[in-house]
Design a protein that fits this description.
- It holds the Pfam family Formyl_trans_N.
- GO terms for molecular function: phosphoribosylglycinamide formyltransferase activity.
- Its EC number is 2.1.2.2.
- The protein is an alpha/beta fold.
- It contains six helices and nine strands; from the N terminus they run E-H-E-H-E-H-E-H-E-H-E-E-H-E-E.
- The chain has helices at about 15-20, 45-50, 65-80, 95-100, 120-130, 165-185, and strands at about 1-10, 30-35, 55, 85, 105-110, 130-140, 150-155, 190-195, 195-200.
- Helix 4 links the parallel strand 4 and strand 5 (about 105-110).
- The protein is globular and about 50 Å long.
- It binds glycinamide ribonucleotide (GAR).
- Glycinamide ribonucleotide (GAR) binds near residues 14, 87, 88, 108 and 109.
C-alpha cells in the first residue's frame, strides 16, 4: 500500500472519506498522516479519532512561506509519505514545493475544471448560469487548479439553487470521486506523464 498524507485547512470531510475508503483491505493506499495549516482545523480531531497521526503546522507560526513549507516537508518525510492529497487545503504552495511532489500530489477542486478556478466556485457557477456543475481531482502543478485531470463527477444545477445547496450537492459526490482517484494514482493506473494523465487498467 502507498503511504499517503492528507493536507487540510478545515473540517476535513474529504479527508474522512479517504480514511474510510482506505480501511478496505484491497484499497491500494493507507493514510499515515494528516497535516493542517491551522491549529483549529476540525479535521485534526477526526483524524486522531481514527488513530491517525495529526499535526497542526500553522503557517502563522513561521516567518516565511519557505519556512512553513520546510516544516511541512519534514513532517511528510518523517511520516514516510509517498503521495500527498490536498483536501480543502486553502494555501497556495511554492513552485519548489509543487515540483518536489509533481506526479505524487493531487487535489480536489469543487468545480468541473477548467471552469471556475480559484475560490467561490459555486457562486461562479450560478453566476455563469451553467446547468451542470461538479468536482475535479487533478495532479497539482505550478498553475493553480490547472494540473492534469484524474477524475470528475457532474451534478445538476437545480432551479432555486443557492451556493449553499449547490455546494452540498457537489460535496456529496466529492467524497467518492476523491477515493476513486486516489486509488487510481496509488495503484499506478493513473500516472502523470509529460503534463497529461495517462490511464491504464
Ligand atoms: C471541499 O469542497 C473542497 O473541494 C474544497 O474545499 C472543501 C473542503 O471541505 N477545496 C477547495 O476549494 C480548494 N481550493 P472538507 O474540508 O470538508 O473536505
Amino acid at each position: 500500500k502507498k503511504r499517503v498524507a492528507v493536507l487540510i485547512s478545515g473540517r476535513g470531510s474529504n479527508m474522512t472519506a479517504l480514511i474510510e475508503a482506505a480501511k478496505a483491505a484491497d484499497y491500494p493506499a493507507e493514510i499515515v498522516a494528516v497535516i493542517a495549516n491551522k491549529v483549529d482545523a476540525g479535521g485534526l480531531e477526526t483524524a486522531k479519532a481514527h488513530g491517525i497521526a495529526a499535526h497542526a503546522i500553522a503557517h502563522r507560526d513561521y516567518p516565511t512561506k519557505q519556512a512553513h513549507e520546510a516544516a511541512v516537508s519534514d513532517a511528510l518525510q518523517a511520516a514516510g509519505a509517498e503521495i500527498v492529497c490536498l483536501a480543502g487545503y486553502m494555501r497556495l504552495m511554492s513552485a519548489e514545493f509543487v515540483q518536489a511532489w509533481e506526479g505524487r500530489m493531487i487535489n480536489i477542486h469543487p468545480s468541473l475544471l477548467p471552469l471556475f478556478k480559484g475560490l467561490h466556485t459555486h457562486e461562479q457557477a450560478l453566476e455563469a448560469g451553467v446547468r451542470v456543475h461538479g468536482c475535479t481531482v487533478h495532479f497539482v502543478t505550478a498553475g493553480m487548479d490547472e494540473g492534469p485531470i484524474i477524475a470528475q463527477t457532474a451534478v445538476p444545477v437545480l432551479n432555486g439553487d443557492t451556493s449553499d445547496s449547490l455546494a452540498l450537492r457537489v460535496l456529496s459526490v466529492e467524497h467518492e470521486t476523491y477515493a476513486r482517484a486516489l486509488a487510481q494514482v496509488a495503484s499506478g493506473k493513473a500516472v502523470m506523464q509529460a503534463g497529461r494523465t495517462v490511464f491504464s487498467d
